């Protein structure tokens, strides 16, 4: 056995037992224990970690711990560019795409409304979610910290908030996505791209009141649904605007309400 001293910073403390939050603590480790093994043993999913410093040196998840090591573990940096440092992931994802677990259906719909490719089914199994995230290079969204610990997952987010609107604000802020929002470009049911359609082509599928009051429509080729800027669109637009405002300020709170 070896003994190392650990210190977790910022929101990573939310995953720790109360007596370990915000302070250094020492812990016996197996001789073949890696930084990843110990970090997750404390309850912190590796996908939440952006930087590990051991004895003043930036290291990866595979660093074997030695007796007397001092380990500092950091989440994503919001205002400090650490690009020159060794990161725990080899590279960022080229395209921001998500897969959401069964408890995040509301968030998945809002992300689609915001224009982010988001896979969701309420019957995905944990291993299936992990395989999709790995195979398709998607960010796994979940409120199950154990799911984020599965082998092979490199990009994931533990969602702190409980209500979908707050969850959307949280994701936009954490991943700095406010400027990447492309509202109403994806079908909120199918996740397929929407395209404009002439009113004449949509007319027979529209309620009489909509036939009179609206001129612009879009459709999903996959499910055939037709969309227009009605009262639901206005409510969603207001919700998105507020999420973008909070996300752009980086001020989305990790509310449990």
Supply the key terms.
257 residues; 5-stranded mixed sheet; 7 helices; elongated; 3 domains; 4-stranded parallel sheet; alpha/beta; Ubiquitin-like (UB roll); 18% strand; 26% helix
Give a brief outline of the structure.
By secondary structure, the protein is α/β, with parallel strands linked by helices. 26% of the residues lie in helices and 18% in strands.
Description:
It is a single chain. The protein has 257 residues and is of the alpha/beta class. The chain contains seven helices and twelve strands. It folds into three domains: 2-74, Roll (Ubiquitin-like (UB roll)); 98-185 and 233-249; 194-228, no CATH class. It has helices at 35-41, 105-113, 126-135, 164-174, 199-202, 208-213, 231-249; strands at residues 2-8, 25-29, 51-54, 57-59, 70-74, 98-100, 118-120, 139-142, 156-158, 194-197, 217-220, 226-227. The strands form three sheets. Strands 2-1-5-3-4 form a five-stranded mixed sheet, covered by helices on one side. Strands 7-6-8-9 form a four-stranded parallel sheet, with helices on both faces. α2 links the parallel β6 and β7. α2 (105-113) packs across α4 and α4 crosses α7 (231-249). It starts with a strand and ends in an 8-residue tail after the last helix.
Blueprint (SSEs and pairs):
Blueprint lengths: L1 E7 L16 E5 L5 H7 L9 E4 L2 E3 L10 E5 L23 E3 L4 H9 L4 E3 L5 H10 L3 E4 L13 E3 L5 H11 L19 E4 L1 H4 L5 H6 L3 E4 L5 E2 L3 H19 L8
Parallel strand pairs: 1-5, 6-7, 6-8, 8-9
Antiparallel strand pairs: 1-2, 3-4, 3-5, 10-11, 11-12
